[in-house]
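Ligand-bound model needed. adenosine monophosphate.
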Amino acid sequence: MLKLYNSLTRQKENFKPYGEKVTMYSCGPTVYYYPHIGNMRAYLFMDNIRRVLKYNGYDINGVMNITDVGHLTSDADEGDDKMLVASKRENKSPWEIAKYYTNIFMQEAKRLNIDLPEHICPATTVIEDIIKFVEGLLDKGYAYETSKGIYFDISKFPDYGKLSGKIIEQDKAGARIEVDKEKRNPQDFTVWIKAPKEHIMKWESPWGLGYPGWHIECSTIGKKFLGDHIDIHTGGVDHKPIHHENEIAQSDCLEGHKVVNTWMHLEFLQVDGGKMSKSLNNIYTLDDLIAKGFEPEVFRYFYFMAHYSKQQNFTFEAMQSAKNSLYSLKQLTLEHKNGKANINTEEYEKDFLEAINYDLNMPIALAVIWKMLKEEKSNDIYLLMMKFNKILGFDLDCKTEEIPEQVKELANLRWNSKLNKDWANADMYRNKIADLGYQVLDSKDGYEIKKI
Ligand code: AMP
Ligand code: ZN
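Prediction:
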């Protein structure tokens, strides 16, 4: 039985989809800059859920939005539109910015072998649906108009704050938030923003030229592609207190019932004790990793080393350890391919399934794999690894070549010579290995062999 932690009920629950297919919504990127590996951790998390669902035999109808309008520099509807900021920075139109960074995002997802949702929907393609959604909220009395736009009235939704546990009374507009006298409650948020004259991205609406707020985009896209029952909704922990509270309020009020069943949130990738983020100037992209010798796949392995609900600290030492492990995992898998031993793999299969089904416990799943790979060489293990790889998503069988026994022996001899500080022989073995078309790369804990 698949168990998933639901942030809303704060419990691990047995997963049961509402309909035949699992409906899944994932908050997607705001396409105003290069995604960093912290952002990409969020999509590896989505990939992880999707693969675990499929492994359990479920069909998925999934959607992810692309925010190409309306995400202001603060989640709470303050500051400038991120797309406009980027557009000024790069001297391009917001449309060009969106196109460019959407392509970059798709390329990064591909490099990480992320299983993308069935639908990917830019907000600017559903403006009409958004307007209809806003009209629905107005008709039902959940929203009201001011000179700045259409606001959602949170006092009409008693469950507001339930997801993040925030208490509304104590969270009045403070020193930082300027009090807007037209708003009924300080935390009322915009669903539609009336565009100032200089605003570039704007559309005709019953309330004049304007553009949608960020939160309404997700509620609308979820409704359009998945209907009014969504089994799983994913995002980062930063989305909980504002973005997802607002999504819940809008969707549940419009439909008159709870729309999302299971809310799942990913914890942050950290660097030096702080969140990896553009504003802290501590970001790395996949290209930065590649420049240091780490293929995107190594970052995939790195993701599996921590549970999604825990912060994960990024260091190059940890990346090196992920790289060594991934390399050994691939080597051992290939060695099992021609293995002759008869091994009963049932327990491993059961333990692996138990780990992934216990709220995606990938560190335990990896431990099961390592234990199994150390068994006598057996094709049964190879075949099971191919099955496990539906979750792992590594390039296990195609591009990696089996290293010939002779090269492996020479590398071993060279390593022993090195340990004995017999540099002359170590060099001699290195040259022999090179003659056979391979090279050995040393690291702190060992070496790896690569084709030249
Ligand atoms: P953004 O494009 O800024 O809206 O962020 C896209 C996604 O990346 C969101 O789901 C964020 O929660 C997530 N995110 C941003 N920074 C990090 C981080 N350091 N670690 C993990 N996820 C992050
Ligand atoms: Zn969202």
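The CA atoms of residues 21 and 58 lie 7 Å apart.
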